[in-house]
């Protein structure tokens, strides 16, 4: 595995932490569509981080769980069964991606979801557990420990992978 794959994975995880940190304020303010959207993003970016370690870059796919199932789970060893437990919630969150973010989709269909606060809270909790397992996958595959805070992970990312980072001002 090359450092560029690790750099991509860590960058995806850093993006996921921003989404993670958006969920709690959204729940507190009863912004359930926002919480669901960011929970889906946590799962997608966690999955993309794991896929990056397997040399797969997914740029525009909002259904990363299919690739995740084919490429990451077989490579996950002892984490296999734990990852499989998350697939139903990942799939459900993926199906909510468009209607939770956009009331009208690109085909012009109008969406309205009624959110059950307890179910939203449960799905968001599961998304956060999935992200943690993605971090464990990275650490198992690379032998490197990752910080779990946004600031800590950003500092680690910049220090460890600077040759691969394209800075923008």
* Largest β sheet strand count, sense and barrel closure: none
Q: Show unreliable segments.
A: none
Overall pLDDT = 92
CATH superfamily: Nucleotidyltransferases  domain 2
| CATH architecture classification name | Up-down Bundle
Q: How do the SSEs run, as a string of H and E?
A: HHHHHH
- By DSSP (H or I, 4+ residues per run), the number of helices equals 6
In total, the number of domains comes to: 1
How large a portion of the residues is in β-strands, by DSSP E? under 5%
Rg over C-alpha atoms, rounded to the nearest angstrom: 16 Å
Overall body shape: globular
Give the termini separation: 30 Å
CATH T-level fold name:
Four Helix Bundle (Hemerythrin (Met), subunit A)
Helix content: over 70%
Q: Structural class, please?
A: mainly alpha
CATH level 1 class label: Mainly Alpha
- Count of DSSP strands: 0
What does this structure look like?
The chain has 169 residues and is mainly α. It has one domain (3-163): Up-down Bundle (Four Helix Bundle (Hemerythrin (Met), subunit A)), CATH 1.20.120. The chain contains six helices and no strands. The chain has helices at residues 3-28, 32-53, 64-75, 80-101, 117-142, 150-160. Helix 1 (3-28) runs antiparallel to helix 2 (32-53), helix 2 (32-53) crosses helix 3 (64-75) and helix 4 (80-101) packs across helix 5 (117-142).
